[in-house]
Structure formats: C-alpha cells, structure tokens
Amino acid sequence: MTQTTVTSSTTTTSTTLSGLRSLYLIRVAFSLIWVALVVTTSASLVSTDKPTVIAAVLLVIYPLWDVIATLLERRMAGTGPTDRVGTTNMALGLAATAGMIIAVFSAIGSALLVFGIWALLSGAIQLVVAIRRRRTVGAQWPMVISGGLSVLAGASFAAMSASATSSLSTVAGYSAFGALWFLVSVIALSIRSRREKR
C-alpha cells in the first residue's frame, strides 16, 4: 500500500513536471511572438496616442492569453473548480481583458494603467501559486522571482500611465522578461525531473 502510494505520487509529480515544462515553453513562444509584433508595429506609440488597431488587438490578447494558459494549467493539474487561486486568476484576466477593450478606445496611458493593475495583481497570484507549488513540485524559484518582478512592473506601469513619455515598448520589455523567466523555469523543472528519475 505505501509503495503504491509513493509510486503514484512520483508518477503524478513527473506528469505535472512534464506538463508544466510544455506549458511554459508555449508561454515563452507566445510572449516572444507578442513582443516581436509590439516592437515592429507599435513600439513608437506613447501614452497620449490612441492605440492603432494592431496595438489594441495585442493589448487585449495578452491578458486573455493568460486566462487560457491558467485554464490549461488547471486541467493539467486536475484541480478543476477546487483551485480557488486559479479561478481568481482567470477572473482577474477576464476583468483585465474587458477593461482593456474599453481602454484601447482611449489613449495608450489608459491601456497602460489597466495593464499595470493586472500585472501587479496577477504577479501577486503567481507568487502565491509558486510558493504553494514549491512543496509538491519544487523548482519554483524562477516563478517566485517572476511573480515578484511582475508586481513591481505592474506598479511601475500604473505610475507611468499618466506620463507623456511612457510607451508600449515598456510593456514589450515586461513580456520579454516574463518569457525569460518561463524559460529559466523550464530548465529548473528539467533538472528537477532528472533528479527524480535517478
């Protein structure tokens, strides 16, 4: 009985590690594509400008993608409706998407404010998830750092939103750093997975 439980637990952890690595790689790819599109189409837009159609679509897609990624992560972990933190994160992402749809009809500064509030709150949620997951999955230090940086970046975006010099390039930088930390997390999870197999 004990051996079966241990084996089952090891298998579950291994599946979770593999699933997280795959999801994080998808998030890296999405972020890099998103950054490339922002840089090539709308990085020159500043706070007082009205977003172009492409910039508006990119700004709306970003928090919506986070909702989809959270849903995929929840299904992979098999937590479903019992995952209150995941549910909160998805609700926050949907609220940010709705807020962004309204903000993009105004100025870039309004969109930066919405983005900043969302980044701050979602970063706090990421911190909570990473700290909880550290006990069961391990190798969560990159996500702890990423969550903390997201909180700081979100507060910075919200503060900069009224400045005439802020632009969408700051948001692209945020996403690029996010991709970097997801990639570091993939490496950390891979190392952890190899250790588990030994």
UniProtKB/TrEMBL annotation:
<feature type="transmembrane region" description="Helical">
    <location>
        <begin position="24"/>
        <end position="46"/>
    </location>
</feature>
<keyword id="KW-0812">Transmembrane</keyword>
<keyword id="KW-1133">Transmembrane helix</keyword>
<dbReference type="InterPro" id="IPR005325">
    <property type="entry name" value="DUF308_memb"/>
</dbReference>
<feature type="transmembrane region" description="Helical">
    <location>
        <begin position="143"/>
        <end position="165"/>
    </location>
</feature>
<feature type="transmembrane region" description="Helical">
    <location>
        <begin position="84"/>
        <end position="105"/>
    </location>
</feature>
<feature type="transmembrane region" description="Helical">
    <location>
        <begin position="111"/>
        <end position="131"/>
    </location>
</feature>
<keyword id="KW-0472">Membrane</keyword>
<dbReference type="Pfam" id="PF03729">
    <property type="entry name" value="DUF308"/>
</dbReference>
<protein>
    <submittedName>
        <fullName>Membrane protein</fullName>
    </submittedName>
</protein>
<feature type="transmembrane region" description="Helical">
    <location>
        <begin position="52"/>
        <end position="72"/>
    </location>
</feature>
<feature type="transmembrane region" description="Helical">
    <location>
        <begin position="171"/>
        <end position="191"/>
    </location>
</feature>
